[in-house]
Amino acid sequence: STLEGPTSYRTLFASIENIMREKSPKQKPVLEGDGTDRELFGGNYVKQKAYFTIIPAQSNNAAIEINAGTVSGLTQGSVVSFYPSGTTDPAGKEPLQKGRVITARNFSSTVKLDKPDNELFKKFPWAFVTELSYGSKKIKLKVNNSMQGAAAKVQTAFKDFQMVELSSNGDLYLDTMGSVDAWIFKYANSGIPFGDQTFSLSDSVLMKEILKRYDRFQYLQNLKFTEQGLSAKVELVFLDVNGNIDSAKLASRTKLTGLELQEGDEVYLKITNTGEKMFYINIVDIQPDGKINPMLPNKKLTDKNNYPAPIRAEDCAVNKYDSILLKSLTISILPPFGEETLKVFLSSEKLDLEDILTDDANDSQSRGAGGVLNNMAQIFKSSKVNNKGTRGTDPKVNTAQNGTIFSVGFAIVPK
To answer: 35 phi and psi, to 5 degrees?
Structure first.
């Protein structure tokens, strides 16, 4: 076999691997090294986009099995494109085939091809995820049946609400507060209330609104994808009277399960660029009761004398290898108690999600370059649930667009 054009060591290994599969299927060659790929004999560094391999023995002309599942962030409805093994970057290249994930398990997924192809799985292609889907799954609700007729009332309340499914193993537990007119939703695994609103089982409107908030909360919590070279470390820290990081107090709040902040604490954001390029950072706070608040940028911020001291999108740039400590942004820890999440958004282009979250701005009002913000804006728009208990569209993220999303979690407990 001959090599066409510049070839990397990883590409050469992929070619060798394919030949060995044909000649000796039980042999499984291994490429040793630190994961860095370079041009063959040239020494130039080659950036490899994330890809997954296929499982030929479980594939056919209509569906391809790949070695990636929900643990890798793959979800049902995501679009997968197949390219020749050894492809370093699919951008601008025509795929051999495309398909959509119809089943996503922990460590593998089934991709239904757009068109049947008798030869694809025999070529041992690489699979690149080109569009992530964040569709809505039903909320499993368990009902306290200690009061006669409760389950029947709940079924009636949600008969046209597609989001809810009654189950003995629920995500949420609908519990009585000791009165027929006082009920509350709780996390089934911990018994902690989701919010503090109580309601009557006849108030289907309020129950639906709370469940819509829970679903959006879950949806946004699960958002995660990574642009190569775009990464950060985001920390909540204490400051002493001199404005320096108080490591001792931070250590006292750090438990085996993670950071545990008390009501009344005041903390600050420290952001470190751990990637290969400059980024703009946005942070959204997701409370234990599902309420969503923009944290960064923060154009409404005032100083201790109540004078405007806004942090704008342009102030949220962090250069490569740099770090910033936002001493002007005091984060006061207050109820509700429970697990809180900071959702972190990194972008190579200037990004401002604050207006979208506070005003539900549409795409035409969104600001940003390269489609990055519009892509993020669509995520938040799609996360909203209508009165039928469904989303207007199946939320998708184009993985070719810039951006990294991850979470920072901590607990809020009483003092």
So the answer is: 90, -10
